[in-house]
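Researcher: Please translate sequence to C-alpha cells.
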Amino acid sequence: MKVLMISSGTNTKFFERESSVRKRMAEYGSIVDELHIIVFSPKGYEVEQIADNVWVYPTNSVSKLFYSFDGIRIGKTIVDGDEWIITAQDPFEAGFAAWSLSYFFEIPFEVQVHGDIYNTYFITGNTFNVFRRPVGFFVLPKADHIRVVSQRIADSLQNRGIPKEKITVFPVVVDIDVFKKSEPSFDVYDKYPQFDSVLLAVSRLEVEKDIPTALRALAYIVQKGINAGLVIVGTGRLKKDFRDLVKNLGIEKRVIFEGWQDDLVSYYKTADIFLNTSLHEGYARTLIEAAASGIPIISTDVGIVGDILIGDRDIEVCDTGDEICFATKTSELLKNEKKYSQLRKHARNSVEAHIYSQKGYLSMIQKNWKKCLMTKS
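Model: Translation complete:
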C-alpha cells in the first residue's frame, strides 16, 4: 500500500530534522510500502527523503490561496498506479486537493476531521472559516473514509447524512506518561504566594476560547471573599483585549498572563483547578493533559466531554458563557475535598483507558488506511 498524505495548513516542522512531526512521519513509513507527504509551504524549501520509504514535498506556494492547486500539481507527479490511497489532514484546502487527485486517478481518499465544522461556533473568531466551511461541506460526502477525533464530531457528521460506516473515531495521540509521571520543576505557589487558590487555563488567546468567561468567573469568586488567582498559559491575538477586560473587572492583581510555556506539567500539577471555557473544540487535548496530570477540571461541554470525560464523574461541566456556573462550581470544589479527590482519580482513569499506546496508534492508522483502500477494490 502506498500513501499520499496532504498536510493541513503550513507546517514547516516537516523540514526540521529533529522535529517530532518528522520523526512521527518516519514511524508512519513503517506501516506502508511508501509514504509521500505534500506539505503546504511558502517558498524556500526542497524535496527531502526523511526515511527509506518516506518523502516530503513542499508546495513552495506564492500565497496560501494556491496551496490546494500546488498540492494537486505535485500529487499528479507522485501517484503512479494502483494500491494507492490519499489522506488529507483537513476537509478544506487539503481535502479539496485530495478529492481532486482521487477523482483524477480513480483511487480512494480519506479525510481527517479535527473539529466540528457544522458547529455554530466554528466560524467564531476566524473569518476565513466562513469560506473554508463550504469546501468542507463539498468534500466530506465524497470521501471514501473519514477519521474523526471524537464521538461528538462523528455524531455531527451522521446527523448531516454521512453514513456511519464511512466514519472511524480515532483520537489524537497524546503521550500521557509525560503528564502522569513527570515531576514538576516548580510550584505555582512559589511563583505566586499571594494567592490561597490558583486556577489555571491553558489556551490560545482567541475568541473561540472564551477567556472572558473565566475572567468574569474569577471576579465573581473574588467578590465572594475567596483569595484566588488565575494563571493563563498561552498566546494569541486578543491578549490586549483580555488585559483591558481584566482592568475593567478590577482584577489586575489576580490574573497572570504567562505567555506560552514548554513546561506545562508544572502548571498542571501544582495549580488547584483547570478551567476550560471554550465555545467549541474538536478534541480538546488540554483536557487529556490536565486529567492525566491529576488536576480537577471544570469545562464547557465540548470535545471529548460526555464521551471520554463524563460530567459529575470525571469533571464538572458548565454551559458556554456561564460565568456564574464556573464560579459556583469552582468555589464548591475548593471546599469539597472528597469531590476534589474523586474528580482527579476518575478523570485520570478515564483518559488512561482512552489513549492508545504508540504501537496501538500505528496499528489503528494502518487499519484505517487499509479500510480506505478496500473501498475501491
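Researcher: Any highlights?
Model: The mean pLDDT is 93.
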